[in-house]
Amino acid sequence: MTGPWVPEDIARAGAEAPGWAHIAVSVGSQDAVDVLARRLDEDGLLVSQPRTTGDGYYKAGARTPDGSLVEITS
Question: For residues 35 and 9, is the Cβ–Cβ distance under 8 A?
């Protein structure tokens, strides 16, 4: 995974680095994803609306108050 948080020297070298980009939490159903996404949106924490990805996952994305990315899946 790449992103602006990956140091340039590591990104250029294509090397791997310790750490994580995000965590994922399964909430059990698409309806549960929708409910949680609405609540997170009201709190200003939702960064991507619920959707089905190209690989078939139903998910939404949010950030915690400290900026960590959380993927919410069905």
Answer: no
